[in-house]
Amino acid sequence: MENRMTAQQLKNSILQMAIQGKLVEQDPNDESASVLLERIKKEKEQLIKEGKIKKNNNESYIFRGTDNLHYEQVGRNIKCIDDEIPFDIPDSWEWVRLLTVCSKIVDGDHNPPKGENKKTSFIMASSTNINEDKLVNLEKVRYLKKDVFEKQNTRTNCKKGDIFFTSVGSIGRSCIYDWNLNICFQRSVSVITTLIFNKYLKYYFDNPIFQNKINKESSGTAQKGFYLKQLNHSLIAVPPLEEQKRIVKKIEELEPLIDEYKKAEEQLYELNSNIKDRLKKSILQYAIEGKLVEQNPNDEPASVLLERIRNEKNKLIAEGKLKKDKNESVIFRRDNSYYEQIGKEVRCIDDEIPFDIPENWEWTRLINLTYNHGQKKPEKYFNYIDIGSIDNRNLRLNSKETIIESSKAPSRARKIVYEGDILYSTVRPYLHNMCIVDRSFCNETIASTGFAVFKCISPFQTDFLFNYMQSNSFDRFANNRKNSKGIAYPAISENKLKQALIPVPPKKEQIGIINIIYKINSILWMEFIFYQSMILSTISCCSVEVFRK
């Protein structure tokens, strides 16, 4: 699935075929491009005579020598330019510099005038106003007085059919002017009047070879630019005029199919990204609120389970595996409200309780259910788990292991980890970089300090806690601005995370909830695969149809 062609790649492939003479057949009856270029030369000479354009003293002529190499003549100077030619073209085509087939290539004002505070019918636009093959955001322009506009307009003098090309900032976007506007531009846009078919030239600008060229050759520090000299000097593959028209017609025929392909692609993305996750979140929320399985009055209540967990915790403390928590809390219900006791202090925590739970469930803090193994500096070779080791779409460890020698250990490689531990990234918790360590490793395993590590105290179920940590309720806690600090990289401290409230069902109900969740997820996955295959079939049909046409 990862190797599937995207809609943009499909479009790029078509455009590349078009400018290489591979999209439509050549017709031997077509007037050759060389004849077309001769006519353009005479047309430009006439425009010069009429004073409409200036003579270019550096007019170029590109031809193929007897050695089959490409040469360029400027005045009396001739040089081989074969290393500049990006691809082969049909015999009836010709290579030219862009300036050769244009009567005008100018950029906008380099020192734009101050705009008016109120709207006028005279506007100065910039590269930000050109996107998706059209003029956009025309409410965000510089408004000019009539006399100021007329002065500016002497430079660009935009006419219908001109191509607007963004040459600074977001370089390489273009559109064909087809509006009735009093419009001029800042320097970031070049205005092109071409003497070949303007739609063909527009598609030529859009093709990936040309786009890669301008991105590679653009220059500038604060803002990259592909300036007039570079634009004028750009190589253009020119087909016969009738073939230009056939190419444009074919692309326009294929564009609705590409659009259909794109819609199917977007549907697939929506399915992959959102639908399955939303369904899963809904199921999880039902589960953690005690609404997924029926309560059994014969089950050992959660209060007894918590007492057993406390006993097990005291045993771990006695064995030196866990330090005694001086702030251990007990949460209980009284007068239909929740209270928390730490030492001798008792306070109402009703405002912290995120939702109601069944009578035989209990609330507790995450710290009362889990512990970790501490930190150490790794010795010898070790298996390192960092954020990149997590597949956050499937919430599991990647299959690839990272083994590092202790002398090359990252400074963050400190957290001791064992099979069955829960790893939860404390940085940008909304990304859900979390997993259960599902296997043991040959070498000792060390995780980044960017993780909080949780080992569930028996008999609390690791899978229940892991599913709860995926729920909307836990998300809200972890990503709350009071808990998660920072703007670009918000993070929640491990100590704060340990204070999260956890609903505790009876043990048997925990197991029942886990089993139901996994069964539902399996069904959802099967349905997901079914709908995914249908969408992929649509995409495949579109792709085949495009190339068939």
Describe, in short, the structure shown:
With 549 residues, this protein is of the alpha+beta class.
Question: What does this entry look like structurally?
Answer:
The structure is a single chain. With 549 residues, the protein is α+β, with helices and mostly antiparallel strands. 35% of the residues lie in helices and 22% in strands. Among the domains are: 209 residues, Adenine-n6-DNA-methyltransferase TaqI, Chain A, domain 2; 151 residues, Alpha-Beta Complex (Adenine-n6-DNA-methyltransferase TaqI, Chain A, domain 2), CATH 3.90.220.20. It has a four-stranded antiparallel β-sheet with strand order 5-13-10-11. The chain has a four-stranded antiparallel β-sheet with strand order 19-28-25-26, with helices on one face.
